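Letters spell out the chain; backbone shape is given numerically. Both lines appear below:
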Amino acid sequence: MIARLTLAAGLAALLAGCASPPAQFYQLHALAPAGTAGADTRSLLVGPVTVPAAHDRPQLMVNDGDNRLTLLEQQRWAGTLQRNLAEALAGNLRSELGLARVYVYPVVGVPEADRQLLLDLQAFDNRVGRSVRLAGTWTLVARGKTTAGGPIDVEQPVAGSGYPALIAAQEQALLTISRQIAAGIATSAP
């Protein structure tokens, strides 16, 4: 009996030592200061947003070398990366453009948007403690026709170490991209 209790206690201690640390979840947020929402009554649908296939997963991926990516099993997105990017971009554009109605793709139960913004990221490089780089193209579509668009390529230094600093740099890079896109939208035909 004592041998069984000792064995059970030993197994419990062994299993407790093997337990994985809890997962950490991250979400991107809009950083643009609140603008004069409602000044522009047109609607904007943001998305779909596409990311490189290697990043299309719940876990964060970081660049450890020139050609090496590391999947961080315990560092995860709250939701999908595409949705996180689209929501943060939508929030930034709402403020930057003074839009009253901004929706995130996919959306159900609202009238068709006046314009749709597509974002295709071909680079989503994350170097912990160093930099974040987002690069790709954006396209604005109105009534089935492309009205604006262009390339984007932003590199943002990471201020600090650790994953929260990396996420903060991603938000800053996305704000820079949002401002570039907002400038392009503002000068495009209605």
About this structure: The chain has one domain: 23-186. DSSP finds three helices and eight strands in the chain.
